[in-house]
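Continuing the series of single-chain predictions for the mutant panel. This is the parent chain; the variants come on the following pages.
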Amino acid sequence: MFFDILKVGCQVEKLQLSTKERIEKALVMYMIIAWRVMYLMRLGRVCPDLSADLIFDPLEWKSSFVLADKGIPEQTPTLNEVLRNLATLGGFLGRKSDGEPGAKSIWKGFQRMQDCVYGIQIARKWLSLSV
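Parent structure:
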């Protein structure tokens, strides 16, 4: 699963970096991403009732609710709720017979969430500079 995430999700085979050092640095970063996706998938299956604050930054889990067109809960949600939001963003349908979300839907949803978080951070910087 780990190497599938590296190969398909991170598309490391498409890297065309000119030196060995650049390839190694890129692989280190992509390996961290692949590990986190696998970790999230496993943790969501083993400990679904953990608080999302233990794994995600508040901006991350709140973004997952906004992107999923759900209201942001007042209490910190469970890990399972946030992972289901991410997986839904990644194409997971969540029907009764579908089982738990897989790595592919989690990494696609995670990418969308990170893009949203990055946009919010840029907007905050821009607003603080322009005021």
